[in-house]
Specification:
- This protein is mainly alpha-helical.
- It contains five helices and four strands.
- Strand 3 and strand 4 form a beta hairpin.
- The chain is globular and about 40 Å long.
- The protein starts with a helix and ends in an 8-residue tail after the last helix.
- 28% of the residues are buried.
Length: 100
Amino acid sequence: MDREEYVEAVLVAVESIPAGRVATYGDIAEYVGQGGPRQVGAVMREYGGAVGWWRVIRASGIPADEVVDQQIQLLRGDGVRVTNGKVNLREVRWNPEEQP
């Protein structure tokens, strides 16, 4: 998969995350089948503005430092509970196999 195809695959995956759910950077890499969390993060930083970027968080459940306040606000707007700056992944982690 070349760079352009990878970027497109990551963005399509992120667009698939429904409101009220989140995925980790690693989840997206696994779903795409290439790269890792850092590569997904790089794609999101450069191209993620047109998709639901706020639904992608660190494996720790903590939003990205650079956009923490905005990300928390958008997640809460989606109905995701954020407690002490952290999302409980067990409650809201996206499972692509449960898509309608």
